[in-house]
Design a protein that fits this description.
366 residues; Phosphorylase Kinase, domain 1; Aminoglycoside 3'-phosphotransferase, Chain: A, domain 2; 11 helices; globular
Length: 366
């Protein structure tokens, strides 16, 4: 395919540079034409037209609410979308700066509130995604031994450890053509991962975490399904100096609102006080305590993303290391520090292995 054919006439001719791969297998490109910079995303060839239209509808609704890049052009035949380019000034740095941290958390909570207030497009509302939102069970309370973040242990973490670096490889990705989606059905995806890793030499503590989370009965939900981004990690947040914009809407759909909030808490290493401030900003009311459903979602996000990274490490040829102990595994803040220092490559099998174990280690203390 000639990528320039995907562009509107006013953006031709153009310089087109690949900048990434979307979670659904889409190619993502930077487009520069004259004085205009835009982003082109071309979906995988096999994507059904109705699924493509649903994604476009979702991004348009989110853009109208000010939480997604504005769509400039759509080519249904080529499954291509051209969106405005958002110049990112670095949201994690706002969180790391004590002078701006409180406002940064409030802005993030308010951004997610605006997203969750969007009416579900008909194509999404007609088929709510989620085994993540089960019928109200007679449930025992979620165990406190496993709480939910990819964050540092509660006892030792400050409000936020250190600003994480881009972690695109941690985002929800396709497991296989027949596997459940991490976003639409994270418990089913975790079960798929558990089975796929049964004969892989996995650390005992990691296998135990996966089993314990799957054995939990999810706390009942008292919130309606909302339009959820389902992949709020640092690489998908852009701050343009005024707005917070969510990028990459490949896995957006109906979900429990706590799912996005939990993902933020996991990847940004939020402690309990910061989680409370985030929920207060989202709900416009401070919680008396962190809701059990949110705690469960943090736990689930940390565990399923950790298991996914181990799965990806295996696919990339990692041999496994069953003798790895909880004590010898890096904490997530330590892993981030090594990543920033260039001591580890997250695209390598070893980098993915260590990241997955760091996430699963975090889950043991939540």
């Amino acid at each position: 395919m000639n990528l320039e054919d995907c562009l509107p006439a006013n953006l031709r001719p153009a310089s087109i540079t690949r900048i990434g791969l979307g979670q659904s297998g889409a190619g993502v490109y930077r487009v520069i034409s004259g004085g205009t910079t835009a982003v082109l995303k071309v979906a995988a060839e096999a994507q059904p037209l109705e699924a493509f239209r649903t994604k476009v509808d979702i991004q348009r609704a989110a853009a109208a609410a000010g939480v997604a890049p504005r769509i400039l052009h759509v080519d249904e035949t080529r499954r291509a979308v051209v969106s405005e380019h958002v110049s990112d000034r670095g949201y994690p740095m706002l969180l790391a700066n004590p002078a701006s941290r409180a406002n940064a958390i409030a802005q993030l909570g308010a951004t997610l509130r605006r997203l969750h207030a969007i009416a579900l497009p008909a194509s999404v509302a007609s088929s709510p995604a989620n085994s993540n939102v089960p019928p109200t069970p007679p449930a025992p309370a979620a165990p406190t031994a496993l709480a939910p973040t990819a964050a540092a242990p509660r006892s030792s973490s400050p409000r936020m450890r250190t600003a994480p670096v881009p972690l695109a490889a941690a985002s929800p990705v396709a497991l296989s053509p027949t596997a459940p989606s991490l976003a639409s059905s994270p418990r089913d995806a975790l079960e798929f991962l558990r089975v796929s890793l049964e004969r892989f030499p996995l650390a005992a503590f990691a296998r135990d975490v996966i089993d314990r989370v799957l054995a939990e009965t999810p706390p009942p939900s008292d919130r309606a399904l909302v339009l959820s981004h389902n992949d709020v990690n640092p690489t998908n947040l852009a701050y343009d100096g005024d707005r917070l914009i969510l990028l990459d809407w490949d896995v957006a759909g109906a979900n429990d609102p706590f799912y996005d909030l939990a993902a933020v808490a996991v990847f940004f290493l939020f402690d309990e006080a910061t989680c409370s401030a985030l929920i207060a900003a989202h709900d416009a009311a401070a919680p008396a305590a962190l809701p059990p459903r949110f705690l469960y979602m943090r736990r689930l996000v940390a565990t399923v993303c950790g298991a996914m990274m181990v799965h990806l490490a295996r696919q990339a040829g990692h041999p496994g290391a069953p003798d790895t102990t909880l004590e010898s595994t890096s904490s997530l803040p330590d892993f981030y520090a090594r990543l920033r220092a260039g001591a580890i490559d997250i695209s390598s099998s070893e980098g993915r292995w260590q990241f997955g174990l760091a996430l699963l280690k975090t889950a043991t203390s939540l």
